Amino acid sequence: MVRLPGRENKQRIALIAGGAGVAMIVLAFLLVYFVIFPTSSPKPFKLTSPTSAPTATSVTGSGTTAASAAGAGGRWSVASGSQAGYRVREKLAFLPAQSDAVGRTSSITGAATLSESKGRVTITAASFDVAVDTLKSDRSMRDEKIHEIGLESSRYPTATFVLSTAIALPAGAGTGEVVHASATGVFDIHGTSKRETVPLELSLSGSTLQAAGALTFPWSEFGMTAPSVGGFVTVTGEATMEFDLRLARA
Question: Potential cystine with 192: which of 18, 32, 222, 249 (Cβ 3.0-4.6 Å)?
C-alpha cells in the first residue's frame, strides 16, 4: 500500500519549488543585466591641452595671450559634440561590487556671451537647456526606468542652468590651454531650483570654446529619491551631473 505525502511534505515541496523559482528569476535577471547588457561606463569628461605650442606670443599684463583672445567677445552657441548627463554608483543585489551607471545626451541648447578687453576674456552670461528625457546609457531597461523613478524625466523632461556670476577666464585661456575656473548659477533639475558652484575646465582657441565640469549632490537636494528596481538594483545616495559643452560663434 502506497502512502500519499502528508500536508507537511506537500508544504515542504511547495516551499522548495518556490525557492527554486525565485532563484531562477534572480539568475535570469543577473544574466540579462550583466551578460546580455554588459556594463560599459564611459569615463568622466576631461579636457586635454594641445600638444603643440601656441603660435601667438603677444602677452598682456594680465598674462592672457592678447593675439589669441582678441575678438572673442560676442555670442557663442552650443555646437556639435556637446554632451551632458548623469553618473551614479549602482549596486546589484547579492554582489558586493558597485559600478558606474552613466547616461548621456547631446540634446542641448543654449548660448554664452563673452566680452573681451585688453586681452582679458570674461563670460558675462550663459544659459543652457538639457533634454534629460533623451538620456541614453548602456542598458535600455535603465533608460526606461528613469522616466518613472529617480530623475522622473517623463514628468520633468528638461534640466537647465543659468549663470548668475560672471566668469573671468584665467591667463592662458585664449591659447587653447586648459585652464580652471568655477561657474556659479542656478540649476533647475527635477523641477527644483538650486544655486550651485561648479568647478570647470575651460579651453578657448580661435572659434572654439569648450567647458567641462561635474556637480555631485544628494538626491534629496533636488527633490529626488535614489532609484531602486525591485530590490535587485539600488543606487547610492548621491548623483553626479556632468557635461562637456562645445561652443561656437553664433
Answer: 222
